[in-house]
Amino acid sequence: MTDAAPPAEGQPQQGDQGQAQQGQPAGPGFRILAQYVRDFSFENPRAPESLRIDGKPAIDLGVEMAAQGRPDGLFELDLKLSIKATHENQPVFHVELVYGGLFQLANVQEQDIEPLLLIECPRYLFPFAREIISGATADGGFYPPFQLDPVDFAAIYIARQQQIAQQPVETGQA
What we know:
It is a single chain. The protein is of the alpha+beta class and about 170 residues long. The chain has 3 helices and 4 strands; from the N terminus they run H-E-E-E-E-H-H. Helix 2 packs across helix 3. The radius of gyration is 21 Å and the shape is globular.
């Protein structure tokens, strides 16, 4: 899903027309200009034995997000999901996906950019990444396919901010 180019400045955008016509400034928001698979790996090292396990495997889930601004004023977000499934200390499958998005922000205050990029933007990318992982496990022979539970990106962001706040401040020597 892509828009070939960002809209020209001063041009009303879809959804902004009602407010722009009334002379009120548009509220903060963002547009998803593109989304894509940056990196993907699926491993089923013990197939076909891994397809015949009794019970549910233990799941180790990793979620990482990295956002950065671009010289053209747009923002990139990479959502990295890593899922390792094991059963009785034996690997069942391992999936790693880096799913990216290109975003255009509008009328967003500077202090709100980071939370928007690390909470709301991954919230929109997540269902597409979840579908890719589900499809990969189904194609890998697992039935039912693995369905990743929803992720609370706000809780991840808050926990990371608290972790940063608790780190000791390093002082330099003159």
